[in-house]
Amino acid sequence: MAGKKLQDTKIAMQFIIKKLSPIDRLSIVSFSTTAKRVCRLHFMTEDRQVELERLVNELEDDNLTNISDGLLTGRQVLDGRRLSGGRVASIILMSDGGHNIGSVRPETVDVGNVAVYTFGFGDDHNPRVLDMVAKNSQGGTFNYVKDGVALSGPFSQILGGLLSVVVRDLKLTVRQQPGDSKIEKVDPGSYPQTQDAAAGSVTVSFGDLYSREVRKVMVDLLLPAVDREYDPTVVIAQCSYSVQGKPFLTPPLRCSISRTRTAAGPDAIKPTEVKTELARRDHADLIGEASTMDPVGARDKLEGGRKALDNLEESNPMVGILKTEADQLRKLTEPPNLYDTQGRPYARSSKTSHDRQRMASRGDVQDVRPFATPLMDKYLEQAKKFQEDPTMPLPSLDDDVRDEEEPPPMPPPPEDKERVTETLVAGQPRVPRTWWGEYSPQHRATSRRAWVMVILCTVLAIIVVVTIAAVLSVYLIYKPNTPYLAVSDAQLGQFQGGQYLQVSITILANNLKSKADATFSSFELAMGFHGDEVALLRSEPFVVPRQSSLPLHFNVVALEPAGMRDMDESLDAGLVPLDLSGKTRTRWRVGIFQKRQFWTRISCRLRFFFPGNGTVMPTDRDRCRSRLT
Fold this sequence. Notes:
Blueprint: H1 3-19, E1 25-31, E2 35-43, H2 46-57, H3 67-79, E3 90-95, E4 115-121, H4 127-135, E5 142-145, H5 152-162, E6 165-176, E7 182-187, E8 193-196, E9 201-210, E10 218-222, E11 233-243, E12 246-249, E13 253-256, H6 272-290, H7 295-309, H8 317-331, H9 336-356, E14 362-363, H10 374-388, H11 397-405, E15 420-423, E16 431-434, H12 444-478, E17 484-495, E18 500-511, E19 518-529, E20 532-539, E21 542-544, E22 548-559, H13 564-573, E23 575-590, E24 594-609, H14 618-623, E25 627-628
Parallel strand pairs: 3-4, 4-5, 5-14
Antiparallel strand pairs: 1-2, 6-9, 6-11, 7-10, 8-9, 11-12, 11-13, 15-16, 17-18, 18-22, 19-20, 19-21, 19-23, 23-24, 24-25
């Protein structure tokens, strides 16, 4: 990888670095003859962002590609995490060449329970290897990026997913009902499934689910013949998942069907949504077959599949996407060498995207976008602007989500007060008519009603103004002081023989001058040492009464073998720095009319006198308080 391709890769990596927040962690691994960890897993504080951008800019080209060693090194980085509960971990693998050194085949590397998103750049990579690596992971996809396409766009799609994970370890269990149904087949795409013959159930493991993502599963049931009409439950579906490490189980969904004495034949009319989903799966299987065929056979196969799509109704947007996808892939079968360099990678990325029901780049990420989420669309626009100007500031994830949740702005009111309308009566010419000034005898009744409406609207407006004034008065009377977090005390207790670190810290949740109780929830603060996470401080939701504070005591004992050299340097300097960053949501009621809520964030460095009495530097302690965001 060299030249413009290497420069585009650096810009894409800088986009990822700038979009991550201080509670996210990132490590970079480069691989050529062997793999090398460029940096450890670091929290993306502002200082670390600057450091990683510098490291990215220093990356250089090498002609050898040891993908296996890169995967193994990435796996070691993730296995070395001390805090992994409730965190989303993944590997993004980028290569513009085939695996050409090393005895271990990349597709045989065990990456564990993480998703691997692979990117093949240009015409020289091996799409089969990168596709297999992604398929062997949990939820990963293979992304093909053709020459000349900026890499920031495809990267932004993966980032838009990883930063919007809503549930983890999602599993769907479907159970047959003895005497009323028997499960013949469960088709979840490429997601793994397990069967329990004794319970008559099948469980599908989907892994993580992004915000606005959907998973569709086709279940084939065998129904016994009946001699009466009734509505039995034929299958029961239930989901399990976890959120922030806490397991949840949905109520069972019972699916019933109306049975009659006669069975519907194969020509029975299927719902449009079912027909479209079946066609999408057939389309994906056809593309998978074409990816292994010669160009002529692939062209014939694709043409037959394209004709089958013409029988579908256009009301479903997916139908148009499938047709566009088939047309683009068909064009890549001629000439034959074009199919080998671009057609097969396109087909493989398309197949894995359909099997995962997840967005994946097919040459150009802007062309065909099934399964894209709103946040991915937003990040794609940001990536295009960032590609043009890598120095531009990027909005935070909170800003992205807030913008997505806000309703669209109302259209501006018309500038002209007199709106001329036209009334067309059969046999008469068009006569311009205006509502203003129409006061002929035949319109008196309408005018009276209009005046009544004007009076009522005026009275209503007065009531609204009075209400707003009352709310404002109540708000000014009961206006609470902004709740916040502050470090009140911290002590570095022990550090014996370079084996473990013991810190006690007290954080005050303050609601001192408020005339309303404040609720704190989603409390999560990370403590780090030289960019490595030492501990994650969490608390269940709690309430701080008005004009009071609630102390939260944390005692941290952490092994830190990876940071011993940095710790020795700190001991020599007589100051041990620990970083504290995170956020919590606060809510309180303003009077009796409304509630207010917002996030308050904290990000500061605490320096401890050690060796010595282990106390925190007073100026650091006093400055360490949260701010409204």
